[in-house]
Amino acid sequence: MAPKKNAFSIFIYNHRNEEIKKGNTPPSFQQLATVLTPLWNSMSAEEKNDYKILANEKNLNEKADFHPQIRNLHNNSDNYWIMHKHLSDIFENIKDEQQLLKKKFILLHVNCHAHVGEQYYFPAEIAAIEFNLSSGISRTFHRIIGISKIYPRGFAGGMRAYSDQLHQISCWNEFPDDYKTILLDFLKFLKGGGREYTDISQISLDLPYMYTLESDTYTDMMKTQSSLERLYKTVFPKHDFECSNVFKVGSIERLLIEIRKKFNYHLDSRSVQEGMSVRAILESDMYGTGLGCTYHEIRSIAFKCSKARVFQWMSNICKDISKINGLQLTPGRHTTILLRDGSRLITENPSIPLTKHEVKVDMTKINQMNELNMTHGGPSD
Question: What is the pTM of this model?
């Protein structure tokens, strides 16, 4: 069994990982210990205690190596603690409301090909959007992914049952399975778009956080993280970099809480009154056609689509904040537009202006309704 880790060794380990993420070759642990000892000695007891907590969890994790599910729980605990601290640090460094309004966030939803009993997850559908509170949506990413090349044959029954229940995306050969291209396209999106990548070595893997629900019938942070890591391992099975350090998946519930706190409007993660929990805000008004991908729309199951969910999360966050600080919402950018046929619309490319002909509704009436709703405490679709 490996020797027990202490707080100082975790401090060195984290510093070494940061150097690796930046593309640097770190010194040996002994050299790092010598260099970092003065910094460690200058830290407060509270700061050191954070590393002590991590050390205890890692020691428990190593004890549980014989039981993969227990080990996964400890890993998820580490990731959640790191994410929580990261979010707190982000919002502490936001100077004022104007800076917060322009801050970009990425929302993520992954439908998985999955065999829950075997803890096997691989992305079936990846949807992500970038937005800020000031301008609404800025960029989108969406892919449905086939699994014909790699699915474990012994898991077929369980994976099909999971798919039929949750997203109805075939496990077999209907969809693209060029995993390298899909992964590089996704990493390009996370890095801000623009440059084309042909190899992982061209990409700095200091990726931004993506926010999804902590736990949900359709997805949760652990499944999302695990599925993206398996995609990475499939493309680069011999890559030296630890894939567990590549993707940073955070809690959208915690994100909304931190945004509200910055506007001095606090809301606990649990329900504070009927219909006012963080989950209730994010998941309100989730049903309706028009926001899903073509695959789910033509089957009349848009509510199962990852794309529809990230659009609606963004819309609900923006509507919630507008009630707090009077944020002016643009239909089609911040919120969905309700069309005459009952479907909804979000304009995915903000550089293309909405026209009356395209949406088949009177935009003047929509704007008047938006102004009226703002006057009465917040807009609605």
Answer: 0.70
